Amino acid sequence: MFDSLRKMFEKNAKTISLKAVEDGRTIPMDEVNDQTFAQELLGPGIAIVPSNGTVVSPINGTIATVMDTKHAVCIQGEDGLELIVHAGLDTVELNGKYYQTYKEIGDQVKAGDVLLEFDLEEITKAGYDVTTPIVITNLGDYKITKCLTGQQVKAGEEVIQLTKQ
Length: 165
Fold this sequence. Notes:
With 165 residues, this protein is mainly beta. The chain has helices spanning 2-12, 35-38, 120-125, and strands at residues 14-19, 24-28, 45-50, 54-56, 61-66, 72-77, 82-86, 99-101, 108-109, 114-118, 132-136, 142-147, 152-153, 158-164. It has one domain (13-164): Glucose Permease (Domain IIA). The longest helix is centred in the N-terminal third of the chain and has 11 residues, at 2-12. It is globular. It holds the Pfam family PTS_EIIA_1. Residues 34-138 form the PTS EIIA type-1 domain. This is PTS glucose transporter subunit IIA.
């Protein structure tokens, strides 16, 4: 009986795919060198140690916030998923230096659309960690079913799979 109920609910679950926002190596959140992210205080997710400075959208949705300091973008996904893409650690201190944003609040985005670019070399030279956390801020009705860590990825490749119950 329980197996048939489980199968019925699994059949109704919608799968959502989060794509890599950059080329680079994926790491679990607990390896991020910032306790806010490592302890998942903002929510669970994955991080990428980038090999370039181009950041793309991980999902289809709407831009909810673009930080004035250009280092972070919040996206409301078509399915209600809410994400923060945070390019670098403590990079808010740069006050937008070395960053260029391409989207504004209210813009519609597709997975793979360029959100922002940053100068990887200059930010690293300035002493900042360029690791980019992708945080799910409203996990609630979602369950992470796959999280690809410890892998080299290209922007646009699936790194997290979730189901919406």
